[in-house]
Design goal:
alpha+beta, 6-stranded mixed β-barrel, 18 helices, 47% helix, 14% strand
Length: 597
């Protein structure tokens, strides 16, 4: 069976059941129907298998789908690192809502009714005691909120959102390359017809009609076109597999299939026939109208000498050169953009010698206190490895695209209505900044005396951008900040240091205002290790250090920080790589076309 409201939507943490995806059932359990009713350990938590979803159903994301699904009320057990999460809070927003429209309703008509309900819901929330300290501006903005609906037929995919614009740009470049190739083929067919002008003249002289000649030349053009289309499909399959292999799957198998389906094959066949006919027809029409008397006398042929023919061929070459320059300039801009992003100062020193990996003790059942001890012991073990210069921990991996932000109140700073008081947060260990090569500009770093309870921070460091924004030229040391806004917000976090600016999500987003608190607890974190040895020699030793503390602790995403930056800039890298390839291909085609003339 699948999940139902009656059986799996009643008690928080009270429905330890799971359904498997069809693909996971096949690959892990070999289609065994006896798995129904058996227990599996998911993050060391026993779950009873109650069903297998149908083949072909992968979920809401067309790029990748979950292999195991659990009831929504089991969220806390399956995601124990979400220590801040409270399912009973009206302010916890973390789900997507899906609804099926009744017959006769559209998105617009449904939105109008849902907006009324949404407004009533917000008015109720604004009347609760928790909202009594809201400012008039904040209350007004809250009540002005609108609900957003969109069609779910195509699902939701972060991968599609990341690559859709890039793929549209590349599709336009492919279209330009196709035009250049077609113009090239037309030119070469005209040149070939010129070489065959005596043969064509003889055929016409002995009674062949012009239509028969055109059909013969079109058949020859179609043979070339079909052969090119078939070779293109074979090449596309191989190259698309390579491109898909570059896309990080983040632990979930990618569902993107590089094999062309019926739609792509149909589109390719239609385009092949269209280009073969259109760009083979003009040379055929030109070749089938020779001056028989002049051609048979071995004089200069009419095809070579006629002004109209030469103008057409030169125009085709000119168009090829113009389009190839357009592609080259575009490729140059994409490559320069990638260089600018890669050349952006990350704020981290020698990223190629910095190894990072992630562990998550909470998924292995560690409590907050036990997880804190695990991370402390792990850092000590890593620092004792010969060749390791330093090591540190960050709750949010940098240059990864992830982010954790809070609205902050700052001592002595009066926020204007609508002002962005957001700060991007990270929880780091002592020695993190030294490991990353981020200079300490003022004050001190964290040390063991700052080990607070998870989420109960007393001290913090801020980056230079945060300090300048809120304190100007004055020192930030000793100032106090607090989580949240409003007159009753506690300013109970003391700033003990200021560090230089560094990137957070990646080069696209630039430097953010950042607040750093002391890392503690069992939630998943990224470790950073700076070594004097080659990084490849460190991987096995780092895995060994984790295994020595807990043999069952998974280690994932082990790489250098520079490799992580390359993954973050994957979209730009693919655009630059493919556009440069298309530009060079277009230039080669234009050169061949010029030689043909």
């Amino acid at each position: 069976r699948l999940f139902s409201p009656e059986e799996d939507d009643r008690i928080v943490d009270g429905h330890p059941v799971a359904t498997l995806s069809y693909g996971y059932w096949v690959s892990r359990f070999n289609r065994d129907p006896a798995v129904i009713g058996k227990k599996i350990l998911v993050n060391n938590y026993p779950m009873t298998i109650v069903g297998v979803s149908a083949a072909g159903f992968e979920g809401l994301d067309p790029a990748q789908g979950p292999q195991i699904r659990v009831p929504v009320l089991m969220k806390a057990k399956l995601m124990p690192e979400w220590s801040w999460f409270n399912a009973a809070s009206r302010r916890s927003r973390w789900v997507q809502v899906f609804a099926r429209l009744k017959p006769g309703y559209t998105l617009e008509s449904a939105r109008a009714q849902l907006q009324v309900l949404y407004r009533q819901n917000r008015e109720y929330e604004a009347s609760l005691p928790e909202a009594k300290d809201w400012s008039a501006y904040g209350r007004q903005r809250f009540l002005e909120g609108t609900i957003h609906l969109e069609k779910a037929a195509t699902g939701y995919s972060s991968l599609r959102n990341s690559f859709s614009t890039a793929l549209i740009v590349l599709m336009c470049m492919v279209g330009l390359v196709l035009l250049i190739a077609c113009a090239n083929v037309a030119n070469l067919l005209i040149a070939r017809a010129f070489a065959r002008q005596k043969e064509i003249a003889v055929r016409l002289s002995i009674g062949a009609s012009r239509g028969q000649l055109i059909r013969q030349l079109l058949v020859e053009s179609m043979v070339l076109s079909i052969a090119g289309g078939a070779a293109g499909i074979a090449l596309a399959i191989a190259m698309t597999r390579g491109l898909v292999a570059l896309v990080p799957s983040e632990g979930n198998p990618l569902l993107i299939q590089p094999m062309p389906d019926a739609r792509i094959l149909g589109f390719t066949m239609a385009l092949t026939f269209l280009t073969g006919i259109v760009f083979g027809l003009v040379p055929a029409l030109r070749a089938s109208r020779p001056d028989l008397w002049t051609t048979l006398k071995d004089a200069v042929g009419s095809i070579a000498g006629s002004g109209g023919s030469l103008f057409l061929r030169k125009s085709l070459v000119s168009a090829q050169v113009a389009l190839s320059f357009l592609l080259l300039f575009g490729a140059g801009l994409f490559v320069r953009s990638l260089q600018n992003l890669k050349g952006t100062d990350t704020g981290f020193r020698e990223a190629g010698n910095l190894v990072t990996f992630q562990v998550n003790p909470a998924l292995n059942g560690y409590t907050e206190v036990r997880g804190t001890h695990f991370f402390n012991d792990l850092v000590d073990r890593i620092r004792a490895i010969p060749g390791v210069k330093s090591a540190g921990i960050a709750a949010v991996p940098v240059l990864h695209g992830d982010e954790w932000d809070n609205t902050m109140s700052v001592e002595g700073y009066k926020a204007k209505d609508g002002e962005d008081m957001q700060a991007f947060m990270n929880a780091v260990s002592p020695g993190y900044f030294a490991t990353m090569g981020v200079p300490l500009l003022e004050g001190r770093d964290f040390d063991r005396r700052d080990a607070d309870k998870p989420g109960d921070w007393k001290v913090a460091l801020v980056n230079q951008k945060f300090a300048r924004h809120f304190f100007g030229d004055r020192s930030a040391i000793g100032r106090r900040i607090g989580n949240g806004m409003g007159p009753k917000t506690k300013l109970d976090i003391e700033i003990i240091g200021v560090v230089a600016d560094s990137l957070y999500e990646g080069p696209r987003e630039g430097v953010r205002r950042q607040v750093f608190v002391r890392q503690s607890g069992a939630s998943g974190s990224a470790l950073y290790v700076r070594s004097a040895l080659p990084v490849s020699a460190m991987y096995s030793q780092l895995r060994g250090a984790v295994k020595a503390l807990d043999a069952g602790m998974p280690v994932f995403d082990m790489k250098t920080l520079s490799a992580q930056l390359d993954e973050t800039l994957l979209t730009e890298r693919l655009i630059a790589l493919l556009s440069a390839g298309f530009g060079m291909l277009a230039t080669l085609l234009a050169a061949i076309g010029l030689y043909g003339v």
